[in-house]
What we know:
Blueprint: H1 12-18, E1 28-34, E2 41-42, E3 50-52, H2 54-66, E4 71-76, H3 96-108, E5 113-118, E6 132-133, E7 136-137, H4 139-156, E8 160-163, H5 170-180, E9 187-194, H6 201-207, H7 227-239, E10 243-247, H8 253-262, E11 267-271, H9 273-284, H10 290-304, E12 308-311, H11 314-319
Parallel strand pairs: 1-3, 1-4, 1-12, 4-5, 5-8, 8-9, 9-10, 10-11, 11-12
Antiparallel strand pairs: 2-3, 6-7
Amino acid sequence: MLIRSRRLRTTTAMRDLVAETTVQARNLIQGHFVQPGNDSTEISSLPGISRNSVEATVRQVESDLKLGLRSHLFFGVPDPSDKASDAHAAHDHEGIVPVTVRRLKKEFGSDVIVMTDVCLCAYTDTGHCGVNEGPVIVNDKSVEILARMAVAHAEAGADMVAPSDMMDGRIRAMREAMDAQGFTQTGILSYAIKHAGAYYGPFREAADSSPKFGDRRSYQMDPRNAREGLRDALLDLEEGADALMVKPAMPNLDLIWRLREKTLCPIAAYHVSSEFSSVKAGARMGWLDEANLFREHLLAIRRAGADWIVTYVAREALEKKWI
């Protein structure tokens, strides 16, 4: 007997009926860059995305909430004069991120989910994700600073901290430090699998965080490896992570799938700056249909098993009804 699978593809209504995967506003997390002062600065390599002042960020989030976009991840871009070898500005309770978090929570309360990046790359004078001794990025000293940074964000009212530094033992240190200060309800979204590589160029322009020497391969993961990332992800859960992130998303759909098979916790994937910018560049040249391509990116990430997607296209996709 001929099996006619096309019966379930005959019309839009039928295809929607049998669709297994959807992308909704609740699945998306919009990335933001926040800078001191009153101005906004366009990011040339991230079309449509800017580094915004605190007040401009508040107004942008207000607009996003009207689209149903409730979850947001914030990256601080401090004044260059605040960068230092000890990254002291990273854990300043009056720093750019804590000030932004307090302002957002005062304005919107529990209507907004505020997530904050916890990493030292924007705060060190080397652009590395930890403090250094000569050419070596020192793990344990960096972890102490990162834990203080997490506490500063939790004290300001962050719903979740999102450590992206890739130091060993950072999740346990942050969980213990926040719990000791009474912030037991502040969650941790761990960048559990984060590969070193070429996908982060536009982000480093946006965050002013390019390394001044060497690269990040001594602490970010080797993209040739799969088991290494899965092992570290499960270790992060043991140390107290509430959710796990895979970054970058599209090159790692296999790892999202394998991680989904191994754990019941929420899984996020970071649709990173080069994934966003390459589509924008192709669309600008007239080579591709950005609406459909972004839609297919987001669906593929969800189909692989991600519950949440951090992406710079969240706002635009909702505004233009691409999803």
